[in-house]
Amino acid sequence: MNDMLRKATFAAGPLGGVIAIGAASLLWSLARSSGNAGTALLGFCVELIGLALLAGGMLWPAINDHRAAVKRLDGLESENAQLVARTQELQVERRESDVVLNSVRGHLMVIDSSYFIQRRYSNELEEVFHQGEAGNENLINVFQRLLPDRMFKTARDYLSLLFDASKKERTVLKVNPLDEVEVNVQGLDGLPITRFLQFNFRRIIENDVISRVLVTAEDVTENTTLERQLRESENQKVRQFELLIGILHVEPRALDGFVALATEELARVDEALKASDFSSATSGQTALLRQRLDVVLGRVHNIKGNASLLRLEHFEVKAQEFEQKVIDLKYRGSLGGDDFMSLVLALSDFRSDIDNLQSLRVKLAGIQRNVEIREEVGDDLVTDVSALATAIAKKLGKEVRVDADGFDSRALPSAQRLVVKDVLIQLVRNSLAHGVETPDVREAAGKPRVATIDLHPLADAPPHSFAFSFRDDGRGLDAENIRRRALEVGLLAPERAKQVGDSEIASFIFAPGFSTADQTSVDSGRGMGMNIIKQRVVDESGGEIGLNSEVGNFCEFTFVLPAASAPAYAAAR
Amino acid sequence: MRMLVVDDSDLIRRAIRRTIEKPNDEIRTAGDGVEALRVAETFDPQIVTMDISMPQMDGLTCLEGILKMRPKARILVISALRDKPTAVEAVKRGAHGFLLKPFTPEALSFEIEDLIV
Fold first, then answer.
1. What is the ipTM of this complex?
2. DSSP string, A130-150
């Protein structure tokens, strides 16, 4: 018996003192409570000790009086002989082992080398397994029911490692794949529920052979869920920090402007995605839904443009991803209410980022108040647009200079100024993506390597209006290319293709989703930029757009914005 | 002691070497599974530290190859893989120890000691 005790203790060796205490106290209470002495079955003793050893580790946090436990350990030595004597006489009675097992918080079982669950276990086990009676069962079968295929195969391999004496126990325990495993079980109401279970294993060694393995199973769903929430909130913090870093370079006023614009544009997106309209939509209304998508696309594209103007990369990328989702839907054959769920989700995600930005902005305000704000020289819109042009040109391997002598939008009412800003952003993007050539191409065509964007007020503007011209010295509009593309996307009926003049052809560039680019990138190819310009200037402000172009030489847009024009959303602010 | 350090990162190879090298040790390194097998042909390492994800030949295949050639070699898998099935697979194929990246020098020394015991 002494031998067996030692062996069992050795088998659990690395667990150390804590477990010894658990073992001692459990054995102790067992010895006391059993009173009536009988003959112990060796195997059962070993098993009980094993159970106690393992349970000790788990029970430890539940032991309230640490000191008392340590004292009991001290007393163990002297009582050991007595204890062993009593244990030898111990009668194995189911009733009593139940008392021990039921008092243990975890769920214990012993499996033999063919994985049959040999011994009784606490009655909470069924709760963990959610399978009803688990008696006389093979653990493999339990795993098969609980685990997804790949994990089941791993679990099966793992059980064989546990009984493989050539593998060190420490190494095997270290790679336990089931220390936190997700299982899907059927709840009492028949609905599937996800639980997280934790299995722990220890070898039981008898006569130098791994005769059995002790298994504990515990439902750790609550812990796991908490852990994940914690991790999620940490991630959230990291995101906020990155956001913060990303806005430090932006002037507070500009940031406020961006928040206001994005908030407003997202509200418009929300309107366009009104769930009730879509859930009731039938297949015949697909065309209507597509129109809505174009509205969404335009709004999001405008946010993207403004984000790139302020070099708010996070929001530029975010808007880009949003756009992609919209475009994916747009080209889907049929559209239903459910298809818009992904957009609604993306929208709420975007909103929460904007909210984050807003709250960071408020926090920042306190810090930045002390920072000197640079003296304004000239129109900061010109400065911003030049910076945007330089940044995009650099990305595209092009070179550009913005000449804006005499252009000054500072006197405009803020609503109108916003329109001008949105228009300029899209014009710059359009010019650099489509009009301006690379330096080598320009040189070969006898032009200066550095392209020029010329922005100037129109001299003959009607009174009380704001009129300006935007001209680049790029390759100009390619009417043939536009004609071909318009045919491809169905804007132009084949029979009309030959009759339509070049000037009408040019107007196609303002159609939503029209692009001559073959590939989309963050800077071009979605065909929304020119459409936004038309929306802003013509639809919302009642203004006019003029277009003049010469192949190989230039492309010029002229704009006239009537004084009274003020988009509804800007006026409301 | 003859040791072979297998990892596709030069940085990690040097870190491992720094930690485990003792006077009179003979240490070789390899940057992928194929190179490791070539070294093991002539070198006969007693201890091998093995990365799992490497170009050309992954660590799981390589450790089997080495054990076939040098059955007495003791192999410690050092991997960043959080994929539990792969860890089980490594032990099944004969790894004698398992250590997760990133590791501390103490943890590595301990695992190396444990291989020898």
1. 0.91
2. TSS--TT-BHHHHHHHHS-HH
